[in-house]
Write a sequence for this structure.
C-alpha cells in the first residue's frame, strides 16, 4: 500500500490496510520514516501485523495547497518499483493499492509483471469525472464512500465506455472502529465534557482540517463572527500540520484581545488535535463549519450534521457544491469563485444564523438527519461495508 503523505489520507489507507490484514493477508505499507512512525503509533499492537517499509525522502516542510510533500513522493517511483520487484520474486501475485493522487509514484511498480494495481480514491466519486485518467490497465478502483451517497457516480464509472474494464468497490474506512490503541493511556478530550453540558443541537463545530492555515485577518474575522452570532461553538484553531508531525515547531495563532474571556461562557478554543468524529456524533453539535475535505463531509453526513461550507483548495470546491447544492445538507460561507475576498465577520454571523435560527436551516437540518438515518442503516445494519469488503477480498484472492 502506498499512501499520500498527508494526515487524513494516511489514516484512510492505514484503516484499509488493517481491514485487509484482518482477512489473514500480509500487508506491506510503504512510506517515509516519519509517516511510518506516525502510522505505527495509530496501528498499535494489532493481532494482524502490517509490515512497514521506510522509503528515502527529501526533507519536506508543511503540506500546503501546493503539496511539496506530494512532489517529493514523485521522486520515489524508482525505489518503490525496486522494492515491489524484489517482493514479486517470492510470491505469485502482488496487489498494489495506491492513493490515486500520487499515481506517478507507483509508475515503475505497476509495470512489474505479477503486480495487480488498484487505485484508492480518497475523494468523492462525484469528483473523479474532473480528474485525468491514469493507468488504464489497473484492475480496479476502491472508493472512500458508500453507494447510498455516491452510487450513481460509481455505476457510471463502472460502464466500460467511461471507466474502462476496472472493477469498482465502495469501501470507506473513514468511520471504522478505531485501530487498536491502549485506551488506558487516553483520557477523554475536555471539549467532549464541555459538550455534555450544552443543549442538543446548539453548538457549531468549527474546524478546517490539517492542511490549512489562516492569515491573522481571516482568523480575526472568524473570531468576531462567532462572537457576534452569540451561538455556542467549539473552534479547533491550529496551523497546518508539518510533514513531520513530531516537530516541536508550532505557531501560536493570536486571537483578538479579550476574545476568549468574552466568549468563555459559550465557546471553547481547542489549539491541538480534537476528536472530530466524536464531536460530530455528540448530541449537542448542530452544525459544522468546514473546509469540505471529503473525510469531513462524509463524517458529517454519517452523523447528520449540516455543513457551513468554506472550501479552500483541491477537491474541496466540488465537495462543497455536492453537499450544499446537490445533497442540500449545507450552506456556503464562501463560494469558490469568491475565494480572493476576505470573509467578514458579518458574513460568518449571518450564515450561522441562517443555519441555526431560520426556516432555511430547519429544512437543511431535517435533510441532514434523513440522509444520516438512511446512510447508517445501510452502512451498519444493511452490511454494505461487509459485502463490498468480502467482494474485494474474494477478487484479489482469485
Amino acid at each position: 500500500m502506498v499512501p499520500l503523505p498527508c494526515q487524513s489520507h494516511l489514516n484512510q489507507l492505514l484503516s484499509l490496510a488493517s481491514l485487509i490484514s484482518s482477512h489473514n493477508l500480509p500487508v506491506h505499507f510503504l512510506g517515509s520514516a516519519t509517516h511510518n512512525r506516525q502510522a505505527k503509533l495509530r496501528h498499535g499492537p494489532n493481532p494482524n501485523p502490517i509490515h512497514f517499509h521506510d522509503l528515502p525522502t527529501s526533507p519536506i516542510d508543511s503540506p500546503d495547497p501546493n503539496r511539496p510533500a506530494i512532489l517529493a513522493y514523485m521522486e520515489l517511483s524508482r525505489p518503490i518499483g525496486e522494492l515491489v520487484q524484489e517482493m514479486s520474486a517470492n510470491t505469485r501475485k502482488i496487489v498494489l493499492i495506491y492513493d490515486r493522487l500520487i499515481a506517478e509514484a507507483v509508475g515503475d511498480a505497476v509495470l512489474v509483471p505479477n503486480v495487480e494495481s488498484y487505485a484508492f480514491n480518497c475523494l468523492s466519486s462525484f469528483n473523479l469525472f474532473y480528474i485525468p485518467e491514469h493507468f488504464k490497465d489497473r484492475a480496479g478502483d476502491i472508493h472512500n464512500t458508500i453507494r447510498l451517497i455516491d452510487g450513481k457516480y460509481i455505476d457510471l464509472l463502472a460502464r466500460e465506455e467511461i471507466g474502462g474494464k476496472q472493477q469498482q468497490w465502495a469501501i470507506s474506512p473513514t468511520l471504522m472502529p478505531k485501530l487498536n490503541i491502549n485506551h488506558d493511556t487516553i483520557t477523554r478530550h475536555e471539549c467532549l465534557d464541555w459538550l455534555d453540558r450544552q443543549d442538543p443541537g446548539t453548538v457549531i463545530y468549527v474546524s478546517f482540517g490539517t492542511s490549512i492555515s489562516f492569515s491573522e485577518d481571516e482568523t480575526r474575522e472568524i473570531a468576531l463572527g462567532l462572537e457576534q452570532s452569540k451561538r455556542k461553538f467549539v473552534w479547533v484553531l491550529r496551523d497546518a500540520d508539518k510533514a513531520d508531525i513530531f516537530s516541536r515547531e508550532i505557531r501560536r495563532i493570536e486571537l483578538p484581545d479579550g476574545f476568549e474571556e468574552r466568549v468563555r461562557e459559550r465557546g471553547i478554543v481547542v489549539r491541538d488535535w480534537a476528536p472530530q468524529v466524536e464531536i460530530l456524533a455528540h448530541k449537542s453539535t448542530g452544525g459544522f463549519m468546514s473546509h469540505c475535505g471529503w473525510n469531513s463531509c462524509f463524517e458529517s453526513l454519517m452523523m447528520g450534521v449540516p455543513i457551513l461550507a468554506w472550501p479552500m483548495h483541491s477537491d474541496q470546491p466540488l465537495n462543497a457544491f455536492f453537499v450544499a447544492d446537490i445533497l442540500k445538507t449545507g450552506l456556503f460561507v464562501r463560494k469558490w469563485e469568491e475565494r480572493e475576498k476576505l470573509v467578514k465577520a458579518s458574513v460568518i454571523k449571518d450564515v450561522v444564523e441562517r443555519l441555526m435560527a431560520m426556516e432555511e436551516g430547519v429544512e437543511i437540518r431535517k435533510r441532514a438527519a434523513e440522509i444520516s438515518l438512511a446512510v447508517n442503516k445501510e452502512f451498519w445494519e444493511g452490511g454494505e461495508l461487509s459485502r463490498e469488503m468480502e467482494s474485494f477480498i474474494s477478487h484479489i484472492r482469485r
Residues 61-68, 177-185, 243-248 have pLDDT under 50 and may be disordered. Residues 7-174 form a domain with the Rossmann fold fold (CATH 3.40.50.2000). Residues 359-381 form the longest helix (23 residues).
